[in-house]
Amino acid sequence: MTHNDVSMNHTTVVEFVLLGLAGSRPLEITLFLFLGIAYFFILLGNISVITITLTNNFLQTPMYYFLRNFALLEITFTSTFLPSTLYSLLTERKTISLPGCFLQMLFFYCLGACTLFHMAVMSLDRYVAICHPLHYTAIMNSRLCLQLILGCWALSFLSMSPPTIMVMQLPFCGPNVMNHFYCDASPLLELSCTDTGFIEELLFITLIIILPGTLLVTAVSYGCIIVTILHIPSSAGRRKAFSTCSAHLIVVTVFYSTCIYRYIRPEQRGGQDSDKVLSLFFSVLTQTLNPYIYSLRNRQVKQALKERVLKFSGSLRQM
């Protein structure tokens, strides 16, 4: 095929077809209800965390600063694909324009990488708080907290933008059907009518640095935390600490295991049904659980939420 042929064919592909999650209408309705409820709780939980940590003076500590930013990140990350997925399930409209697909992929990868960096930073924050409590305030000062947050955002966009932008510049000659519910790089690369070997290698190298790298930081931090917890003299204190730590570790394990198997396993093939299931785990399930496990189980947050609810109900009674 000549260059002119490729260029001419490239202009004929103006949209992609996303096959989605279900092949039958009853299953689509069921998934719409399930994902709609999940998205509602993602928004409710994270907006609650942002509101409570912003409006309560005793929650102005580094831990809640990171949790507030993490909640904002969770909302933006899930909003890159869940609204369009819900719309597709409800209306059976499965097409997405090329610009829309490329933007969705760009923000999905950049915000997904930012989530990994945030989880590593939050684990470091907990490590300093539990293992070095006397130096916590001095180490985790407001300047360092801001630098860490800005670093997460900058690193994620600087690392993930090059390979995703390179995917956007590829020619697509047809077919234009992807077996997925959002625009992902691997099924997109399979639809390109040119050699994508370099982009695949670049994307793989980037992910193999970010995923195991942030996992190592998180695992080492929690490992040190567990060692410190074992030295707590009170058995009740140990049980309480382990309860919180184990809940965090379950979410981290599910998130990282599904991400790693999905994106850096050998001989990866995009568009498999198993890929969609794995994507649901790390992009929807863990995002639904995160605000309730990381924040809303916290005693201070629950107390602040209770006071807010009582204040609101009191104002309603006075109306």
Automatic annotation (TrEMBL):
User: Where is the chain membrane-spanning?
Assistant: 29-54, 66-90, 102-124, 144-161, 202-230, 242-264, 276-296
Task: Please verify whether the record's keywords include Repeat.
Answer: no
Q: Does the keyword ATP-binding apply?
A: no
Under Pfam families, the record lists: 7tm_4
Domain named G-protein coupled receptors family 1 profile is located at 45-294
Entry similarity comment: Belongs to the G-protein coupled receptor 1 family.
> How is this protein named in the record?
Olfactory receptor
